[in-house]
């Protein structure tokens, strides 16, 4: 794991922006990509999430932006962290978590990747070796302005070769997300960069406060101006099973089975996929903090213990 700080790209940001000529393409420049879409369909291109049951419905394609939205404290950062380290098998990843120290972010990912809260030093050595080549963390706590966000994205993609950037969260990106014009300007910027650089940008965000945590969420629940979800390519909701939380607190299991799912991911928008609405159930493995595929599943090791 390496950290990236604003000083790293201060001089880079002074370079001239790319000239318009780069956007003019010959047919031969795009023929291979077009053929791939014809043969496989655009919905089946891109990187997959770490759970097999999601693969036939949702992919993380280059040139797109996904909003991961949910109630505060219900697992957005944990599940996107699990997704982030799984993607390092295929590409370089940067996490900009402006609400948490890099050491804490990395420690939680190591717990998830090792399948437990107390990984051995030898296993951590293997993780360190892999992540040092493929994982970057933006070392800045607190709000930063959209210009720094733009420079960070361009620097990470062009200089480091990063293909997935996680920004946690939109509330730390230096603009009022309830302002339609500012939200549109920000989303125009990040979607434009995702397309230009052929990367995937993940935006973690909150949902609006409701009368009850048990109220069902939908795309309109995402906090802030409608431009955020309108301009995003994909929107995924992250939430916990409120009936199960209630049962665990009170001992009243009349409304839910003990092995009912703990959490859900709900795809409520996918612009370029064949599936636009899909719900996936997950269970929480408390020792590793992994989201697992069924109640009796074991956490999956990112690196097998016999790996060298």
Notes on the structure:
This protein is an alpha/beta fold and 308 residues long. It has a domain at 2-12 and 44-236: Rossmann fold. It has helices spanning 27-40, 76-87, 102-114, 121-134, 146-160, 180-197, 227-231, 242-250; strands at residues 2-4, 64-70, 92-97, 135-138, 162-168, 200-206, 234-240, 263-270, 278-285, 290-292. The chain has a ten-stranded mixed sheet with strand order 1-4-3-5-6-2-7-8-9-10, sandwiched between helices. Helix 2 crosses helix 3 (102-114) and helix 5 (146-160) runs parallel beside helix 6. The two termini are 18 Å apart. The model has no long low-confidence stretch (mean pLDDT 89).
List the helices and strands and how they pair.
Elements (H helix, E strand, L loop, with lengths): L1 E3 L22 H14 L23 E7 L5 H12 L4 E6 L4 H13 L6 H14 E4 L7 H15 L1 E7 L11 H18 L2 E7 L20 H5 L2 E7 L1 H9 L12 E8 L7 E8 L4 E3 L16
Parallel strand pairs: 1-4, 2-6, 2-7, 3-4, 3-5, 5-6
Antiparallel strand pairs: 7-8, 8-9, 9-10
Helix pairs in contact: 2-3, 5-6
List keywords for this structure.
single chain, 308 residues, alpha/beta, Rossmann fold, 10-stranded mixed beta sheet, globular
In the sheet with the most strands, the strands line up as 1-4-3-5-6-2-7-8-9-10
Order of helices and strands: EHEHEHHEHEHEHEHEEE
Gyration radius, rounded: 20 Å
Mean pLDDT: 89
Please give the count of helices: 8
Q: State the separation between the terminal residues, measured CA to CA.
A: 18 Å
Overall outline? globular
Question: How many β-strand stretches?
Answer: 10
Derived from helix and strand composition plus strand pairing, the structural class reads: alpha/beta
């Amino acid at each position: 794991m390496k950290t990236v700080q604003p000083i790293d790209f201060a001089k880079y940001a002074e370079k001239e922006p790319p000239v318009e000529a780069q956007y003019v393409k010959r047919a031969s420049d795009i023929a291979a990509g077009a053929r791939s879409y014809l043969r496989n369909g655009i919905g089946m291109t891109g990187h997959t999430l770490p759970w097999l049951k999601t693969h036939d419905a949702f992919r993380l394609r280059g040139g797109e932006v996904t909003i991961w939205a949910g109630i505060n404290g219900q697992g957005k950062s944990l599940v996107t962290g699990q997704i982030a380290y799984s993607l390092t098998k295929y590409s370089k990843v940067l996490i900009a978590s402006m609400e948490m120290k890099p050491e804490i972010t990395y420690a939680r990912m190591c717990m998830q990747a090792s399948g437990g809260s107390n990984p051995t030093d030898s296993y951590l050595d293997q993780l360190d070796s892999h992540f040092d080549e493929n994982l970057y963390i933006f070392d800045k706590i607190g709000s930063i302005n959209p210009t720094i966000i733009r420079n960070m994205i361009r620097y990470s993609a062009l200089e480091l070769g990063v293909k997935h950037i996680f920004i946690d969260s939109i509330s730390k990106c230096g603009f009022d997300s309830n302002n339609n014009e500012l939200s549109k300007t920000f989303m125009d910027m990040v979607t434009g960069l995702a397309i230009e650089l052929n990367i995937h940008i993940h935006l973690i965000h909150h949902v609006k406060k409701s009368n009850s945590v048990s109220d069902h969420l939908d795309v309109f629940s995402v906090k802030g101006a409608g431009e955020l979800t309108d301009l995003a390519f994909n929107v995924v909701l992250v939430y916990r099973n409120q009936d199960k939380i209630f049962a665990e607190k009170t001992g009243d299991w009349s409304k839910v089975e003990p092995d009912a799912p703990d959490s859900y991911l709900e795809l409520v928008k996918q612009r370029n996929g064949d599936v636009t609405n899909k719900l996936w159930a997950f269970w929480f493995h408390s020792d590793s903090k992994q989201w697992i595929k069924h109640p009796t599943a074991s956490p999956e090791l990112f690196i097998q213990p016999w790996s060298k």
